[in-house]
From TrEMBL:
Residues 127-163 form the Adenylate kinase active site lid domain. The gene is adk. Keywords: ATP-binding, Cytoplasm, Kinase, Nucleotide biosynthesis, Nucleotide-binding, Transferase. It is an enzyme of class 2 (transferase). GO terms for biological process: AMP salvage. This is Adenylate kinase. GO terms for cellular component: cytoplasm. It comes from Streptomyces paromomycinus. Pathway: Purine metabolism; AMP biosynthesis via salvage pathway; AMP from ADP: step 1/1. One of its GO terms (molecular function) is ATP binding. It is found in: Cytoplasm.
Length: 216
């Protein structure tokens, strides 16, 4: 299957993508992973992307598209893939359409993870990260540490990242509504969109998504 996963920040796209890709035996292609891999491997695309990032500029769509296409051309993606974070805007969606048409294949579904905006803000703004190890993540409501402000795992200080502050989260949501949300209508016109309520436990959301894909 060839699937695109969309949804606002905090919808759980990364978590669901990993579970779905495993269940469907297809590669999970994440934009973040693509950037990190190309930069760490020193590819031409990675060097180009890094030059923009080091200058504090956005990486052009052309570079992101080229990275995604290169990854989709790999042998493990011949039978399908799950795209997470790409396409991010209409230009990228149109480029993906053209790429797939050139390969003589089509998307099977676009999964839209639907989460109320207030819940998104609550999820992200409530995160607390350990200063000693960023993989130690807690939440003021959903995963409280035993001692407030102290990591259960190593005793490090817990803090709120700048990106997780409520005002920053709301700005990120504005960007999502302006730039990314329009691709949902783009794919609705192709009768590909399946909306998945993303509230609840991770496995419950995964089961909804798998059931929706079975119907699709």
């Amino acid at each position: 299957m060839r699937i695109v996963l969309v949804g606002p920040p905090g919808a759980g796209k990364g978590t669901q993508a990993a579970y779905l890709a495993k269940n469907l035996s297809i590669p999970h292609i994440s934009t973040g992973d693509l950037f990190r891999a190309n930069i760490s491997q020193g590819t031409d695309l990675g060097k180009e992307a890094k030059s923009y990032m080091d200058a504090g500029n956005l990486v052009p769509d052309s570079v992101t598209i080229a990275m995604a296409e290169d990854r989709m051309d790999q042998p493990d993606a011949e039978g399908g893939f799950l795209l997470d974070g790409f396409p991010r805007n209409i230009g990228q969606a149109e480029a993906l359409d053209a790429y797939l048409k050139g390969k003589g294949v089509k998307l099977d579904a676009v999964l839209d993870l639907e989460v109320p905006e207030d819940e998104v803000v609550k999820r992200i703004a409530g995160r607390r990260i350990c200063r000693n190890d960023s993989s130690h993540v807690f939440h003021v409501d959903y995963h409280k540490p035993k001692t407030e402000g102290v990591c259960d795992l190593c005793g490090g200080d817990l803090y709120q990242r700048e990106d997780d502050r409520e005002d920053t989260v709301r700005k990120r949501l504005e960007v999502y509504h302006t730039e990314t949300e329009p691709i949902i209508d783009h794919y609705k016109a192709q009768d590909l969109v399946v909306t998945i309520p993303a509230l609840g436990k991770v496995d419950e959301v995964t089961q909804r998504a798998m059931a929706a894909l079975d119907k699709a």
